[in-house]
Amino acid sequence: MSKTEKFTLKIYTPAGMTKQAVFADKNILHLGCGKNKVNGALGIDKLNLPQVDIQHDMDVLPWPLDDNNMDVVIAHSLIEHIDDLIGFFKEVWRISKPGGRLIVVAPYFRCVDSFTDPTHKHFFTARSLDYFLTEKNSLSDYEYTKINFKKVDFWYGYPHSKNVLSRYAKEFFKKNSYLYDQYISLFFPVKIVVWELEVVK
Fold first, then answer.
1. Is residue 195 within 8 Å of 129, Cβ to Cβ?
2. Structural domain boundaries of the chain?
3. Tens digits of per-residue pLDDT, 76-86?
4. Which in 47, 51, 81, 152 has the greatest CB count within 10 A?
């Protein structure tokens, strides 16, 4: 994984999602922000809520946002609701600056709660976003799209662990993601998976 700065760690702290404006010098976009917009971000959501700056349905493309404008795009509990995931990632790529970051939080496919919400359309494993990566792998070779992202990091669950045992277990799972997804997760499923990706242009 990359040794570069990880913005995910600033947003998802040991105490939960930060209340601070941690990116004062960057253009931040919070997609599907709802009532919990990241401090200092531009919020877009299809619902007309107090924290929403732009009311727009993410399934309607293109989004009302300029090209090459965003430093950080946050999609928390959103992509599982999206109709066209390839179109979604193309839009994120379009509106992001070269080297911009995309932070994705999505339900893990083993989590029972993922199936409780009837509006969830997709479920995710550690490799689900590999289709969009610059790094050559068996999934990126499908070339569903020409846009590219570089994986900065990936986490099973939120990045900060509450205890040492949990931290070591999650590191083991990450290093052995196929083993975890295929077998271990049957007994010890996480609720979410988290990615930080860098936009490659």
1. yes
2. 8-200
3. 999 999 999 99
4. 152
Contacts of 129 (CB under 8 A, 6+ apart): 104, 149, 151, 195, 197
Contact call for residues 53 and 44 (beta carbons, < 8 A): yes
Alpha carbons 92 and 76: distance in angstroms, whole number: 14
Residue 93 and residue 88: Cα distance in Å, rounded?
9
Structure tokens at 195: 């990615």
What's the pLDDT tens digit per position in 17-41? 998 999 889 999 999 999 999 999 9
Residue type (1 letter), 14: P
Helix (H) or strand (E) holding 76, with range, is strand 70-76
Q: What is 8-200's CATH topology?
A: Rossmann fold (3.40.50)
Structure tokens belonging to residue 20: 């601070």
Contact 91, 61 (CB under 8 A): yes
